[in-house]
Design a protein that fits this description.
By secondary structure, the chain is of the alpha/beta class. Helix content is 50%, strand content 12%. The protein has an eight-stranded mixed beta sheet with strand order 14-13-12-15-16-17-18-19, sandwiched between helices. Helix 3 packs parallel to helix 4. The structure holds nicotinamide-adenine-dinucleotide.
């Protein structure tokens, strides 16, 4: 094996090059190589400076995530970084690519930093539920000042090289070749007689206002990072950088970072990190199955979804043709697309010339024949089975051999749609969420005949258009919407039992959901659920109270935000939701008519009923093989349904509560509330009885 760390001499500068493909992660081996290199330099007197640089596409990209399970092996970070910092000659870090976490902590233990102007530097630990644990909380405030360091670590977003330069995190920017730039910088320092500049010896700028600043950040975090534990730990560690000598601060940082790692939040966020890396693994489909290239795309239907999906393709540089039935429909669709892009330009998130480029990639047509070049076609017409079947028969005529045929249906049977074609193996669901150009989630629905390479093409496509693609099997509502059904049922039932919409949504939002379900109904249109339930009435329980509040609102024409009122009123100038006493009175009167007892469930009961119903349905989905993994369900809910990431998704959350506890509550609801709806799933019963978790169940599945 090639050496990870090599040293060569360039005149009087020693260059230490680290090379651990693919991203120079700080594994035990890399740390050992780095340590050995700096130790050997100590014994030499042939250089007056050291440049630390990385080969490949990036500087040190961060710690080794696998070490969360094993604990950090020798050599540890502190010992190593202390060695670097104590180097008797000056040490310059030369940074390119993405320096993250431990990479940045290493760079700031060096005496100076130069960076390519395209580099990015970040301390994103908070997004993984941990805190910088290799001196970052102690050195960063000393290097760039208290408030900028807090911004960087609490925000977790990487800085551009220019921003890093402005903050003094980087001393010099280089364009073109990094190493010559770094060498020239080092020689400049030598010529000036500069020596080592140890970050740990610098005072913290802004320390005199530390109490006030840290208190303000605590208050802010309590508001904007509700329920989270890491921000408080991070602030404690930074306070120590101000109050304590460096070595004490380092010890405290290490203590806190171990607590954060083991915390529920830390485990939850790491779970999601690894869950997203599992998504592409489909049992029975090995790496020999390759996806097909997608150079051109087609869309049928220029409506809400079709337009948004077209933007996803254009944003990824893929030309796309949208077919609709009338010129008016196309014009309407294009006007919306243009408006969406213009809004991004106004907000400053899109450069005008990029908008023009993207618009130029989207073409409208009234002729299905124009879809003949497309490698992927996504159908997004009205939710009507007969119509979709007609369209797939047409697509079968015009699509080129090998084209992937996707439907964006939310509820229809994709096997039935595939059956009208002579190539059911080419058909699958590509379930985007609204607004399609914004929402992260893409459910990839594998029908019974879908070919493995078609599935892999869809997974690759998800990556190309920067979506989180999760594979599901065909059933009503797939993973996400199917689980939403019992969750919504309980929310509505709580309203009938006397909780106000604001109490129901407030309880769910306090738990951490991005938006309460009733407010979501108002946003999407209260009538949508009502109409689909009407169509499926023959399959649903014979229960006049089932989803009754939504039915009442729809019958009154109070359809949510689009009509100015639904579960709430939206008549303030900023269209904020406000309670609607009339709607509440209507729900009360209906409850009385139906004889629903007014129990007025408390917040904790509301949360338990909604979430345990959701989790129970998730367990059924696993039993039936609709989702491959419990962690896939977690990804669906965090990427598409506003479930709080710091709770790890519904199935991870269930494991943290304990499946036995959840089962007990479900059985209590079954006795006390409703025997029909509260049937525990067989998988939940089994796991609770065996004292196992969803994670353990998943680990025991064939891979
Ligand atoms: P929409 O009513 O906004 O648009 C449908 C478009 O299809 C219209 O432009 C219509 O002219 C066009 N169309 C109808 N018949 C056609 C034909 N024969 N050939 C070509 N075009 C035709 O509908 P939408 O909200 O964009 O929904 C489209 C699909 O996406 C539905 O299956 C829906 O269930 C699904 N979906 C919608 C959402 C959502 O939130 N709106 C979310 C996920 C999935």
């Amino acid at each position: 094996m090639a050496e990870i760390a090599t040293i060569h001499l360039d005149g009087d500068v020693a260059v230490v090059t680290l090379d651990a493909p693919p991203v120079n992660a700080m594994t035990r081996e890399l740390r050992a190589g780095l340590k050995a290199a700096f130790e050997s330099l100590r014994a030499r007197s042939d250089h007056r400076a050291v440049v630390l640089i990385c080969a490949g596409r990036t500087f040190l990209s961060g710690g080794d995530m696998r070490e969360f399970d094993t604990g950090v092996q020798e050599p540890g970070y502190h010992e190593l970084l202390r060695l670097l910092e104590d180097t008797p000659v000056l040490v310059v870090a030369a940074i390119h690519g993405s320096a993250m976490g431990g990479g940045v902590e290493t760079a700031i233990a060096c005496h100076y930093r130069v960076a390519l102007d395209s580099a990015r530097l970040g301390l994103p630990e908070i997004t993984l539920g941990i805190i910088p644990g290799a001196g970052g909380t102690q050195r960063m405030p000393r290097l760039i000042g208290l408030e900028p360091a807090l911004d960087m670590m609490l925000g977790g977003k990487p800085l551009t090289a220019a921003q890093a330069k402005a903050l003094g995190l980087v001393d010099e920017l280089v364009s073109g070749e990094l190493l010559p730039g770094a060498l020239a910088f080092a020689r400049g320092l030598i010529a000036r007689g500069a020596g080592p500049r140890r970050t740990r010896e610098l005072p913290v700028a802004g320390a005199e206002r530390a109490d006030e600043v840290i208190a303000a950040r605590r208050a802010q975090a309590a508001r904007t990072m509700r329920n989270r534990t890491t921000p408080g730990m991070l602030l404690d560690a930074v306070a120590a950088a101000v109050e304590r000598p460096f070595d004490d601060g380092i010890r405290y940082e290490r203590e806190l970072s171990l607590v954060a790692e083991k915390s529920v939040e830390g485990r939850a966020l790491r779970h999601l990190f690894f869950a997203e890396r599992e998504l592409r693994r489909i049992p029975g489909i090995g790496p020999e199955v390759r996806g097909r290239p997608v150079a051109a795309a087609g869309i049928v239907g220029a409506g809400t979804m079709g337009g948004g999906i077209a933007m996803c393709f254009a944003n990824a540089g893929i030309p796309v043709t949208i077919v609709d039935t009338t010129q008016e429909a196309l014009d309407r669709g294009f006007a919306t697309i243009r408006k969406n892009y213009e809004r991004s330009v106004q907000r400053g998130s899109l450069r005008p010339e990029l908008m023009a480029q993207r618009l130029a990639l989207i073409r409208g047509s009234l002729a299905y024949a124009d879809l003949g070049e497309a490698d992927v076609i996504v159908e997004a017409v009205f939710e009507n089975l007969a119509l979709k079947k007609q369209i797939f028969a047409r697509l079968d005529e015009v699509a080129k051999p090998g084209a992937v045929l996707g439907t964006n249906t939310s509820t229809l049977d994709i096997d039935e749609i595939a059956a009208v074609t002579r190539r059911p193996q080419a058909v699958l669901g590509l379930h985007f969420f609204s607004p399609a150009n914004v929402m992260q989630l893409l459910e990839i629905v594998r029908a019974s005949a879908t070919a493995p390479e078609v599935l892999v093409t869809a997974l690759d496509l998800a990556k190309t258009i920067r979506k989180t693609g999760v594979v599901a099997r065909v059933c009503y509502g797939f993973i996400g919407n199917r689980m939403m059904d019992p969750y919504g049922r309980e929310a509505e039932r709580c309203v009938l039992e006397g909780a106000t919409p604001a109490e129901v949504d407030g309880a769910l939002e306090d738990f951490g959901m991005a938006m309460g379900i009733l407010a979501v109904y108002d946003l999407a249109g209260v009538d949508i659920g009502y109409l689909t339930r009407k169509e499926r009435a023959h399959l649903l329980p014979d229960d006049p109270s089932f989803y009754r509040p939504t039915a009442l609102l729809t019958e009154r024409g109070w359809l949510g935000q689009k009509t100015g009122r639904g579960y709430y009123r939206y008549d303030s100038p900023e269209r904020k939701r406000t309670p609607d006493p009339e709607a509440i009175a209507m729900f009360r009167a209906e409850a009385e008519r139906l004889g629903v007892p007014q129990r007025r469930p408390a917040p904790q009961e509301i949360v338990e009923r909604c979430l345990y119903a959701l989790i129970n349905e998730g367990a059924r989905i696993l039993e039936e093989g609709i989702a491959l993994r419990a962690s896939d369900i977690d990804t669906v809910y965090c990427a598409g349904y506003g479930f709080p990431r710091y709770r790890g998704g519904p199935m991870f959350y269930a494991d943290t509560v304990g499946l036995d506890v959840i089962l007990e509550r479900i059985q209590a609801f079954q006795r006390e509330l409703d025997p029909q709806y509260w049937q525990p799933s067989a998988l939940l019963l089994q796991l609770a009885r065996e004292g196992r978790s969803f994670a353990q169940w998943q680990a025991a599945q064939p891979r």
